[in-house]
Specification:
By secondary structure, the chain is α/β, with parallel strands linked by helices. It has 13 helices and 16 strands.
C-alpha cells in the first residue's frame, strides 16, 4: 500500500487544534500541559499532519493497528455492514456476531470456544475477573507489578504500573507479585532458568501466604506490553498453569496487546504451549477500526453459567460494525499471511536490526521481543544498568527520553516511549523497506540518547 502524499493545510490544522483544546478532555494528561498533534490522515504504516509532515508510526496507534491504517478490505466490510444492519441489541443472534465469535474461537488455544464480547480490553479484563470470582466463589486476584490491564475500576487495580496509584483503593481484592524479568531481576538470578525457578517459587510463596482457598485468579499478560515487552522465560507460564491447577485457581491470560499476530503467532501464548482458563483480547482483533474486545472462555467456566445467569453485559456487546471489522480483519490476516509476516519481520529485520543498533549505541542496555513486538531498554550505564531516566520520571528528570523522542519525530518516526524504554511496535504487515526506514530513524535518535550516558 502506497501512502498518500500529505497535503499541507495549516489553517485547517489550526482549526482542528483549536476545537480540540476547547472541548476534548484527553486521557492520562494534565490538560493544560499537552499539545496534541492535529492528524490529517493515515494509511498503511504512516500518518501525517496538516503541515505536510509524514510519520512512520512505530506505535501502531496504541499497539492496535496490526494491519495498518485504512486497510481497504476492512473499510469496505464496515461500509457494507452499515448498509445491511448498522446495529442490533446483544441478546439476539446476528450473523456477523456469530461469525466473528467462530473465527476467534477457531484461533484461541484449547477449548476456549465461547466468546463474550466487550467494547475493549479493560472491559474484557473486568468481565474475566468477574467470571473467575463467580466460578470459584473466591475474591482475591493476583497480578504482576510490571503490568497494565486497563483503566476501569478492577482493571486499574490489577495494573502494576504507576497509573494505578491515583485510583488504587486497596480494597479491590488485588495482590501484586513480581513476575520474571531477568535484565532487572528482583530475585538476583544469574540466568533465565534461575529467573524462572525463583519467580515461580516467589509466586507459590505468595499463594501460600495469601491463602490458596481465597484466590480466584492469577492474571498475567502473556508477554507484558506497556510494562516493557518482557518475554517470559521458558517454563514460566507452564509453571503458573501448574500452580493454578494445584490450587484450583483460574488462570487468566491478557492478550489485549500481544494477541492477533503481534508476536508472530495468533496469540502470544501459542509460543509457550499453555492453555489458560480465560483469555482477554481487543486491539488487534480488528485493528481498532471499530472498538471491540472480549473474553474467550473455557468449557468448564462456561458451564458454570449454563443454568445460572451471568450477571454482566454491555449495550454494545458484539456490535455488528465492530464484528464485521473483526471478520474482515481475521480473513485478510489469513489471506495475506500477516501473522507469518510479523514472525519474519521479527526474525529477519527488527530483531537483527535492533541488536545491531545496540552494539553501536551505549544507551541501549537490552533488546527484547518477538514478531512486531520489541523494546529497547535505554540506560545511562551499561555496566550498572542504571536507567536513562528514573522510574516514572517527569519534567526535567525525564528530559533525556523527551530529547530522544523529539529526535525520532524530527526524522519522521513516531516513537512509543515509556519510562526509560522505546518500543518498536509497527504494523504487523509493515514492509521490509519501511521497517528499515524506522531502524534508520531510531539509529539517528539513539545518538541523542547516547549523549546522556556515562560513555559520552
Amino acid at each position: 500500500m502506497t501512502p498518500l502524499t500529505p497535503h499541507a493545510d495549516p489553517q485547517a490544522g489550526a482549526a482542528v487544534k483549536a476545537a480540540d483544546r476547547a472541548h476534548v478532555f484527553h486521557s492520562w494528561s494534565a490538560q493544560g500541559l499537552i499539545d496534541p498533534l492535529a492528524v490529517a490522515g493515515a494509511e498503511g504504516a504512516y500518518f501525517w499532519d496538516y503541515d505536510g509532515n509524514r510519520y512512520l508510526d512505530f506505535t501502531s496507534g496504541l499497539v492496535y493497528t496490526n494491519i495498518g491504517y485504512q486497510h481497504p478490505k476492512v473499510v469496505a466490510a464496515i461500509q457494507e455492514q452499515a448498509g445491511k444492519l448498522a446495529t442490533f441489541a446483544p441478546a439476539f443472534a446476528v450473523d456477523v456476531r456469530s461469525e466473528a465469535a467462530r473465527l476467534i474461537a477457531e484461533r484461541t488455544p484449547g477449548d476456549l470456544d465461547k466468546i463474550f464480547f466487550t467494547n475493549g480490553g479493560a472491559e474484557a479484563v473486568e468481565n474475566a475477573i468477574r467470571m473467575a470470582r463467580l466460578h470459584t466463589g473466591r475474591s482475591k486476584v493476583l497480578s504482576a507489578y510490571r503490568s497494565y490491564h486497563g483503566a476501569t475500576s478492577t482493571a486499574i487495580n490489577l495494573t502494576g504500573d504507576p497509573r494505578r496509584w491515583a485510583s488504587d483503593t486497596a480494597s479491590a481484592g488485588v495482590v501484586h507479585f513480581w513476575g520474571p524479568f531477568a535484565y532487572r531481576s528482583p530475585f538476583y538470578s544469574a540466568d533465565e532458568a534461575q529467573e524462572c525457578e525463583r519467580a515461580l517459587a516467589h509466586l507459590e510463596d505468595t499463594i501460600a501466604f495469601e491463602g490458596p482457598g481465597t484466590i480466584a485468579a492469577i492474571i498475567l499478560e502473556s508477554v507484558p506490553g506497556t510494562a516493557g515487552i518482557m518475554v517470559p522465560p521458558p517454563g514460566y507460564l507452564a509453571g503458573v498453569r501448574e500452580l493454578c491447577d494445584r490450587y484450583g485457581i483460574v488462570f487468566v491470560l491478557d492478550e489485549v496487546m500481544a494477541g492477533f499476530g503481534r508476536t508472530g503467532a495468533w496469540f502470544a501464548v501459542d509460543h509457550f504451549d499453555v492453555v489458560p482458563d480465560l483469555l482477554t483480547f481487543a486491539k488487534g482483533v480488528n485493528s481498532g477500526y471499530v472498538p471491540l474486545g472480549g473474553v474467550a472462555i473455557s468449557a468448564e467456566i462456561a458451564a458454570t453459567f449454563d443454568k445460572r445467569p451471568y450477571p454482566g453485559g454491555l449495550t454494545y456487546s458484539g456490535h455488528p460494525l465492530a464484528c464485521a471489522a473483526a471478520v474482515a480483519t481475521i480473513e485478510l490476516m489469513e489471506e495475506e499471511k500477516v501473522v507469518e509476516q510479523a514472525a519474519r519481520l521479527g526474525e529477519r529485520i527488527l530483531g537483527p536490526g535492533l541488536r545491531e543498533l545496540a552494539e553501536r549505541h551505549p544507551s541501549v542496555g537490552e533488546v527484547r521481543g518477538l514478531g512486531a513486538f520489541w523494546a529497547l531498554e535505554l540506560v545511562r550505564d551499561r555496566e550498572t544498568r542504571e536507567p536513562l531516566v528514573p522510574y516514572n520520571a517527569t519534567g526535567e528528570a525525564g528530559a533525556p527520553m523527551a530529547a530522544f523522542a523529539a529526535a525520532c519525530k524530527k526524522n519522521g518516526l513516531w516513537p512509543f516511549v515509556n519510562m526509560n524504554r522505546t518500543h518498536a511496535v509497527p504494523a504487523c504487515n509493515i514492509t521490509e523497506a519501511e521497517a528499515k526506514e524506522g531502524l534508520a530513524a531510531l539509529d539517528a535518535a539513539l545518538s541523542v540518547a547516547d549523549e546522556h550516558t556515562t560513555a559520552a
